Amino acid sequence: MRFVFAIVAFVLAAAMIVLGLAQRTVFLEPNSISLSTTVTGDAAYTVIDPSALAAYSGRQTVSLSGPGEVFMAFGRSADVDAWIGNDAHVDISLVDGELVATDTAATTDGSESDTDTSETTEVVDEPQTSPVGSDLWLDEFSAQQELVSAINVPDDISLIVASDGVEPAPSEISLSWRVDNGTPWAGPLIVGGAVMLLLGLVLYLLALLHLRRSRGPRRNVPRPRLPRLPRPPRPRALKASEITGPRKSLNRFVVIVPVLTISGLVLSGCSAEFWPGGGDPVSGSSSTASPTPNSTDEAEDATAPAPAAVTVPQLERIVAKISTIATEADAALDSDSLTTRFTGPALEQRLANYKIRAVAPEVTASAAIPASPLVLTLPQQTESWPRTVMTVIQDTDTTSVAPTALVLSQETPRDNYLVEYAVQLEPESRVDVAPAIVGAPLIAPDSRLLLMPPDEVGAAYADILAQGEASQWFDKFEATGDSFRSQVAERRATAIAELEITAALEYTSTGGSGRTLALATNDSGSVIAVSLNEVETVSPVAEQAVVGPEEGSVSSRALSGIDESTKGLQSTYADQLLFYVPAAGSDDKISLLGFSQGLISSAELP
């Protein structure tokens, strides 16, 4: 029976091992599913919509090929559609399990006309724009002729594919998804077969031992005597090694073969895919889009807030680009480069600094724009344009420098974000704002829900700068911690003290070149950015008297180009101011969060 059990064990072992190996070979399913299509026509853009990207679950691998440059980016579907606008493009969607490409002709009236890809579509001749480097994209990739990229994007994300915005977009498009082709029973079967093989081997050896013992000495039994016959000649005895070879070597080989066989089979089942609950077969490095809120309840709720204009990683890339351009432009006094990323009072102040430093290089440059890290991000809740985003950056290399607050604006989908305000924060600035993924609504300039309407804050603060405690608005603003107010008062007092008897000095304030931008805070208040122009006029009060820039004012002389005048001089200082305004009815006061000031003009009076 021992031999029977051993044979049964060998048969079971062979069956289990063969079945386990078959699951990893002949029965193994493909590890990916692919869909592909070929785009025809001359459209410069191709949009892959969410239905195609969500054809199967898991990460998507996008393969693109074309004759020249291949570019791909992904962003929110609404942002991609807004960037495309009315330009001719190809939409790729999922229809009956297949990718279908549909030409969409360019229109001039805001409507779109869809036609089948086999038909010729008349395209309106409109200027094309390259999508490379747009601030709308969550991430982008580019290559020559062929691009393969693994991404992991949630719902409501679309891909835009292009060449250079002029040449036709890449024609060969393929999407693939890794699927779980793991064989969780392959490992147990192979290892179990190896154990059964070892068990069969043990049973076989026990059976052989039992058989050898059964042939040992037995009791003597009387035998009948037979007549003795002549003894035949005895042949020469042969050694055992001459028949079977060295017995010791044979035994070693018999033992080694099962051990090697069992070890190989066991090691072949060590991969995670061979076992139940093994590792994720579709894991791997890829580019992942930041998730966007898209629950069904929110989609059905008409009162759900609009999404945040940007994500934190998206804004980090934008700020890094701005920092690079600002640093290079500041060093080279390159005004053309600066205008690609600055606007409003931030641009005005830096351009004036360039003019001054071109004449007087010893003048200090405007405050640098750090690249990272972003310690606060407050994007506007919106799906339309223009868009506003506020962020605070702390330069980790120079901790003695105050954090920089930027207020960015984007006018249209194809415009980049521009720095409209760049201020240094006060040391004790604190404000409670919503998380970056939620964002904040933009407050109307004339809103009465605040302690003071945003468009009145600048004028009220200018009145305090001019009259001090005599201003009717003095009690509305927090004086403690407002270092800008004391700096202005000190500068004006010094100028008056140094004024000649034959000259008169006058200060007036006007609205600056920047818009009033206000974003809501968690306590129903608002962070408000405003700009002011402080105009300083020095005029002679006696005949033949002359006036000039105050002593040591290199900046004024550099901008005006004169040392003295009989008509008078007028200098304008631009103020960028960032305030916190409490909600209406609050007992708190309006506080200054940060500021930046710079001389922007100096000229002789007419």
UniProtKB/TrEMBL annotation:
Domain of life, per UniProt, equals Bacteria
Biased-composition ranges for Basic residues? 217-237
User: Bias regions of kind Acidic residues — which residues?
Assistant: 111-125
Question: Where does the DUF8094 domain start and stop, copy by copy?
Answer: 309-600
Transmembrane parts of this sequence: 185-209, 253-275
Chain segments carrying region Disordered: 105-132, 217-242, 279-309
Question: Which keywords label this protein?
Answer: Membrane, Transmembrane, Transmembrane helix
Q: Where is the secretion signal located?
A: none
Regions of compositional bias (Low complexity) in chain numbering: 282-309
Q: What name is this protein filed under?
A: DUF8094 domain-containing protein
